[in-house]
Amino acid sequence: DIGKTITNSLESGGFPQFCYRALTKPPEYLVLIDSPTYRDHFARLADSIIRALEREGLFVTRYFYEQNPRLCFRNIHGEREYLADLADKYSDHRVIIFGSGEHLRDPVSGELDAWTTLFHKWRDRALLTTVPPAEWGMREVALAREFIVLPASLDGLAALVEHFENPAKLDLKAW
Predict the structure, then answer these.
(1) pLDDT (tens digit per residue) in 25-34
(2) Residues near 96 by Cβ (< 8 Å), separated by ≥ 6?
(3) Which of 21, 99, 113, 167 has its CA 20 to 30 A from that of 155?
(4) pTM score, whole prediction
(5) Inter-residue contact 139 to 172 (CB < 8 Å)
């Protein structure tokens, strides 16, 4: 840190006082997992994957939600937290949603609900959908306007990591 080094060196009578700062900051992730029931197999699988990533040194904050991510919880008996509060608290994180994304859309128009603008607080946001790519349609097209949409699989997760490191427009048809 050149500025701090100069200031501290001048304050110490001209003796060099080197100050350093990190050149990079490892990414941090906020993961939201759809868990309609606590014993949901997909939610447990997603949670296991996230725990494995934590063991590898990634910084992950994990929350669950039941169909609608506007109300999240850390565990089944944990206190509920609003998505708006999480957006303020973790806005510098990358957000990854594990779920179908069905409850992010207006059931009549098929477009994203107005409240989903909460996700604009995050620059990097993705949805790893439980819907198989063979069944993707207008729902995924609507979601892809605001999120990186990939299948909730190890291949999808690998593609997401690659995208975060080298941003490029992802093609839904490729999946």
Answers:
(1) 788 999 999 9
(2) 29, 30, 31, 32, 125, 126, 127, 128, 160
(3) 113
(4) 0.80
(5) no
